[in-house]
Amino acid sequence: MRFRRLCAAVLLAALIPVPTPASAQTSCEDVYTPVQFGLIRQTMYGRLCVPQGAKTLQVLVPGGTYTSGYWDIPVDGDKRSVTRAMNGAGIATMAVDRIGSGKSTKPLSILVDVPNQAQAVHQVIEKLRPRFTKVIVGGHSIGSAIAMAEAGTYKDVDGVLVTGMTHQWDYVRAVPALTNLIPAPLDLKLGLRGLDVGYLTTVAGSRYRMFHAPGPEVAAVTAWDEANKDVVSAGEFVTTALMSNLVLPVSAAIDVPVMTMQTSADYFCGTPPLGADCSSAPALVRSEKPFYPSAPRLDGYVVNGYGHVFNFDTKSADAYHAALVAWQRSI
């Protein structure tokens, strides 16, 4: 009898799947995609991570002065990593560097704007699409404007993730923050790249106040953020404003489900029309719904207690990542 019970226990254990670390299941590679960028050829870099058997792909675009590293922040383990959380849930990720930044090619800044970036991301999606049954394009800040433009223009994705960007801005807070930007050639480190003055970066020591406050000031986070800061073009700023809130927003053409995930302390939240209503997820959806008239579904999620770059926030990370996974599985 004991032998039978032991055999039954062993058999049952063999049938129950045992979770393994995401790193053991996920294959990652650096991908350099040739893209048509406006009228010229460029190369867009991305870090592609595919869990075994993944059928959903998330293409992630960072905001201004950030690179693909924003989605996989290596400070204090992987708590701040969106890509690792998604990979652990069986979702593939492709985090790209916008043209002009990171490991992507760097043309004259006058060529670098939201429509051209969206065209480049579209070509990355085209090349990866055959491998997956569902593709989500997502972004942060200016990256969200690019994601919205890509989805609205090319109609090639199944959902859109918008973070760090709404259609109503609190200019009273946003405009003063922009005074922390300087031409990249004036920066001690980035000046060595030989970029033209249309590329901008942040003044040394300004990133906590500009991007993280009122979140806790963590020395390791501040140091990593400063050491890895990058550039944004003036054209990206201008076209983001024009395409998201000053004229007919490009989001009006999006015809797939959208998830807007914001932090209540951001420049894009406040009392409408100076910021969207981010007091709760339902309030955020009501505030943003008019800008997505063709989207069959708009969901919202609000983070509290952190600034613009809330991927750095460990307090909200688990719930934020879980909400993102659940949304993707529901569409």
List keywords for this structure.
331 residues, alpha/beta, eight-stranded mixed sheet, three-stranded antiparallel sheet
Largest sheet: 8 strands, mixed
Shape: globular
Strand coverage percent? 15-25%
Order of helices and strands: HHEEEHEHEHEHEEHHEHEHEH
* Amount of helix: 25-40%
User: Structural class, please?
Assistant: alpha/beta
Distance between the termini: 49 Å
Strand order of the largest sheet: 1-2-4-3-5-6-10-11
Describe the structure.
The protein has 331 residues and is α/β, with parallel strands linked by helices. Helix content is 33%, strand content 21%. Helix 4 crosses helix 5 and helix 5 packs across helix 9. The longest helix is centred in the middle third of the chain and has 15 residues. The N terminus is likely disordered.
Question: Summary?
Answer:
This protein has helices at 2-15, 22-25, 82-88, 114-128, 142-154, 171-177, 207-212, 219-227, 234-246, 281-288, 317-330, and strands at residues 26-37, 40-51, 56-61, 92-96, 134-140, 159-163, 181-183, 199-202, 232-233, 258-263, 298-303. With 331 residues, it is of the alpha/beta class.
Q: What topology emerges from the helices and strands here?
A:
Elements: H1 2-15, H2 22-25, E1 26-37, E2 40-51, E3 56-61, H3 82-88, E4 92-96, H4 114-128, E5 134-140, H5 142-154, E6 159-163, H6 171-177, E7 181-183, E8 199-202, H7 207-212, H8 219-227, E9 232-233, H9 234-246, E10 258-263, H10 281-288, E11 298-303, H11 317-330
Parallel strand pairs: 3-4, 3-5, 5-6, 6-10, 10-11
Antiparallel strand pairs: 1-2, 2-4, 7-8, 8-9
Helix pairs in contact: 4-5, 5-9
